[in-house]
Amino acid sequence: MNILVLNCGSSSLKYQLINMENEEVLAKGLCERIGIDGSRIKHTPNGKETIIIEGDMPDHKNAVQYVIEALSSEEHGVIKTMDEINAVGHRVVHGGEEFACSTIITDEVIEAVVKCTDLAPLHNPANLIGIDACKQIMPNVPMVGVFDTAFHQTMPEKTYLYALPYDYYRKYKLRRYGFHGTSHKYVSHRAAEFLGKDIKDLKIVVCHLGNGASVCAVDGGKSIDTSMGLTPLEGLAMGTRCGDMDPAIIQFLADKEGLSIDEINTILNKKSGVLGISELSSDFRDLEDAIEEGNKKAELTMNVFCYRVAKYVGAYAAAMNGIDAVVFTAGLGENNGDVRSEVCSYLTFLGVDVDEEANKCRGIERDFSKEGARVRSVVIPTDEEMMIARETARLI
Ligand code: AMP
């Protein structure tokens, strides 16, 4: 059974075609600049060089058509015809309170996702366009929606409610939802397997540290708290997002700088975080180079970032009354040993004890704790696409 996994952004579309018999990724790629001049696909068939196909993609329907052509082309294809795609799994960012698990996409489901658009105005419309494009091009192929928020629907009321007038929850469902759920679920389950334990017996904190970053408390396999909130702006300092801050700052900036709410929103989402403090870059690789050259601001930025991650791990250790493992994933979590080491340096009181030699690793599964450490510190590379493909296969 071949599953096509799609992750649609406003002007991009990431895809993977996965053979579920052996979970082999047959091909993957990215359509860029959809609806903008210069659109193209980067297509990588398994084991072969990436090729770039220039093409006119005025909308996502054209992009899906290009993807299918690339996948089935004689030259660099991996299937003969579209008929070899048995199902499509869509990443959907916000499922609100409607979706606590993945679901087969029907007209009713599409309607419910449309209703969640208020909660994710930047993301859900693009996901819906991708669903609509597939519906038109492959009307008989079943589709499954896998929601970033679903894994966190197990959070109890006391963690998801904001301390605002209750009526806003009643009227608008204004609450913490959390994101990166597909990654947190995959990584926590994989970590339990890797440690040879039953996930039901484990208290795990997953640190998904990428350009977007969030921490999740997973107790017995269930998310009981997470750092992102109504939107992905809350929580850690991220590449360009501010994370937690005093909400009074919004009024302060409006008064002092004469900014509108929209302008402040852009600053908090696009110009803050690692980029905002370092005044250099949102990418930690640039920060690492600058730190080596003695740039103190880059070092401070890294300190702020790591301190906040550690603070959340400490908070979640309290939430679960202890932890068994702290697990790192995503671009930074998988590749930056310095970040892992600095975060863990705050957590020795919990029983975290890092083997610095073992921590010198990138992009592989590894327990980098010292022998006998009470709390295991582990790297598990995330694989959201595989998780979406598995959910899709399970449901169809
Ligand atoms: P993500 O959003 O998961 O792609 O993660 C992006 C962040 O991870 C950026 O800050 C990158 O600097 C960092 N990152 C991604 N890949 C690597 C790598 N191979 N080595 C070091 N840092 C990386």
What does this structure look like?
The chain is an alpha/beta fold and 396 residues long. It folds into two domains: 2-147, Nucleotidyltransferase, domain 5, CATH 3.30.420.40; 198-379, 2-Layer Sandwich (Nucleotidyltransferase, domain 5). The chain is 37% helix and 19% strand. The chain is built from 14 helices and 14 strands. It has helices at residues 60-72, 107-115, 124-137, 157-160, 166-172, 181-195, 248-257, 261-270, 273-278, 284-292, 296-319, 330-335, 337-345, 384-395; strands spanning 2-8, 13-19, 24-32, 40-45, 51-54, 87-92, 103-104, 143-147, 203-209, 213-219, 222-226, 325-329, 366-367, 376-379. The chain has an eight-stranded mixed sheet, sandwiched between helices. It has a six-stranded mixed sheet with strand order 11-10-9-12-14-13, with helices on both faces. Helix 1 (60-72) packs across helix 3 (124-137). The protein is globular and about 55 Å long. The protein starts with a strand and ends with a helix. 44% of the residues are buried. The model has no long low-confidence stretch (mean pLDDT 96). It binds adenosine monophosphate. Adenosine monophosphate binds at residues 210-211, 239, 283-285, 330-332, 335-336.
